[in-house]
Amino acid sequence: MKLTEHYLQLREALAAVDDYQAIQITIEELAEILHCTPRYVKRLIKEMKSNGWLEWEVSYGRGKRPTLTFLKSKDAVTFEVSKLHIETGAYKEGLQLLHTLNSFYQQKLNEWIQEQFGYIEHRNSEEQLDILRYPFYHAIHHLDPAHLKSIHENHLADHIFDTLLTFNPRSSAVEPHLAHHWEVDDTGKVWTFYLRKGVLFQHGRELTADDVKATFERLIETPFHNKWMIRHIKEIRLIKKYVVQFILDRPEYLFPNALCNKQLSIIPMEVYNENPEQFTKLPIGSGPFKLTKHDDSMLRLDAHSSYFQGRPHLDRVEIITLLQMNEQEHHPFFHYFNQVTDKDQPMAWKEIEHPEEGATYLSFNLFKSGVHQNKKIREAIRCSINRDQMCRDLLGERYFPADSQLIHITENTYNNPYDPAKAKRLLKEAGYNGEKITLYATQLRKNAHLKKEALWLKDHLENSGLVVEVHVVPIDELIRKETLAEADIILAGMALGMDIQYSLLRFFQLPGSFIKALLGPELSMTFQKELVHIQHEPNSLTRYQLLIDLEQLLKDEITYIPLFHRSHHVQVNQASPLSGVTLESYGKVSYKKLWFKT
């Protein structure tokens, strides 16, 4: 690597010299350029000549100077340096050089990078590893399960941690996981869980009821976004080594559903207490994969050989962090993003589609005074938005109009309400006189926000005569009361999990969904009573209908306008050795089910 750096330094200093153009220059002059001794320069020249990078001819006689001829261009050497960085795991350094190359070598490097992703079979004298390697466009800063936010963080946590129970989307039921059995008393307040024996954390210690108690005591004391899920836990009792009991302060028949949430994963508290900051980077769980590397360049997951549900077939997953790219950019090698494929060859491909429950929507802040308090104004806004056109203009075939957080409700009820003439009539009836309406769009991270959607809405609302001011605000900032009080309308999105009932309940209450927090004093009281009623209801079908009715109330009052759903698609090369590809919650591929044919 040092030799190539010296060669690039020479080419930079002698940039006016073309390839294959002979120049006369002395060892002493080269030593001055490279800031090293003449003796060391002679050694470098010898090595560069041996590599075929340059010619060096010494002419003897008074006044005669040596002749230097460059045989390899700066881009050709930079290309090799970039490859070497990437091969040794320094992806950040290697890709930084990509932008310094000319178009020929950029394309060449892109093609080579493609070959580094997908299925990798690593063999040496001692072992054979089946590795899945793919790029991702932003860094994961922490993986403490209590503070998971993004879909990708939840996806990774699903492979590192385990919860007491799990939700099966095929049966639409909560099923055993770390707990093999549970029961509730007649009051709906006392829940007892019986743990599996022999479940091992990834550092080798057995998981017991002590870990469950310690994990939940930590959650009770820790501020986190889904704190409402455990707010009714009054006491946690250790009954036996493998038996733990939760005492609630009121009946809550969705409590088992809450325990399927990844934020409530069981962790070894002695590891967390030893170094909380380190735990966020390299956490320990009991899941099928252990996080063994987490830095600026990659996340590496290795199979947990003692996993209680059986060792994964896949040996390793390497997620390469490519910070300078984002999901809006489409370089050739980025076709691996959110896909599991082999090399990009003109073969038969199979597309797997997973429509995502949840929707992007508008929510009105009825705690703030303003023209949006007038229901006719809100209805005019609804009539000003052509949801079909919005999907066509901004989002393409992967998105489709919504009338609910649930796709099957949309399919049954959606009727495009777009009616610009009605919108203008309603504004006139409401006495609207050009008052400014503030629209706040959410931002999850640097390159994940709803800015373009907000600007589209602004243009179309202004076509009806409304005056709209757009702000894009990080979601952690927006949930603060001081910031939220400035917004008339929030543009946000929600992806629901596999447990639709509990996801809807979560949607209605989560601060970052901007529903419950914006309803205004009068509607908030009605809304809260209905939420309590739902959580007290023991019958699942009745609970589900109550949740649907609650969303309909929001739509009838026009406090909430669903805009669009999205669908995830993965292209799988059927000629690839990769098998077991399925899209699960949030459209992600489960590593637990992947395996490779020979």
UniProtKB/TrEMBL annotation:
Domain of life: Bacteria
Keywords in alphabetical order: DNA-binding
Ranges of residues in domain Transcriptional regulator SgrR N-terminal HTH: 3-117
Domain Solute-binding protein family: 174-497
Keyword flag DNA-binding: yes
InterPro entries in UniProt: SBP_5, SBP_5_dom, SgrR_HTH_N, WH_DNA-bd_sf
Name of this chain's protein: ABC transporter substrate-binding protein
